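>> received
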Amino acid sequence: MTQLPTPDSEALRARYPLVFNRPVSARLATPVMMFGAFGIFVFGLVDLDFSPARLIPPDPGSSLPAYLVALGETLSIALLGTTIAAVFALPVSLLAAKNIVPSNIFRFPVRRLLDSIRGVDTLIWALVWINVVGLGPFAGVLAIAVSDFGAFGKLFSEAIEAADKKQVEGIRASGGNALHEIRFGLMPQVLPVIAGQVLYFIESNTRSATIIGIVGAGGIGLQLAEQIRVLEWQKVSFLILMILVAVAAIDWISGKLRFAIIGRRAVA
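>> returned
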């Protein structure tokens, strides 16, 4: 193994004097600038009379029980809507997968149907269902279910198409029929992926359920819209804080569940 030559420190110092012997002004420039910036920051706080006490403190007043019920309603809307969408999208995604339905004549209309449904935002679906079934959480559940149906159909079909063909060929070689190939060859591969996608959508739909609640689909969004309308900003800040805490908790729980389903992969 070739040994690297030892660098000549004296020659380097003579060649690059500004690197090894920096003047005092250059060494002090950065600390002085940082100290000056900090001084300006402190001066701004004092001169502008900045005080955390002047911010809007969260205060639910006597409405905390109603807000907790509304938050539970929002979580229920997200959970029910996502679950319904996943249950109905799974069989349809099989019809949209190329390795299940090779013929483009049958697969093309299914894919275009999913694209059409997915192209309409959840908020628009909420306005549609509010006019059909009236105000309330039922409209919110239907809006999320229909919107996610299109998204799940696409995602599930892509997961099915990406599945390993060897397991399916093994089932076929052992005498299994088409249903056996799907049940024992494809589903064990794609179900962990599908479960992870559903858990992520539950977290995302918690935020969506809040937004559609503002237009009348129930949940904590309806409470938020009412408090903004009457300018109760302390209650508004408390509701926003509740939403942030709920989304963070759901994110943590869904992360644990995803790892429990797919397992932790060791980092190389």
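>> Residues 66-267 form a domain with the MetI-like fold fold (CATH 1.10.3720.10).
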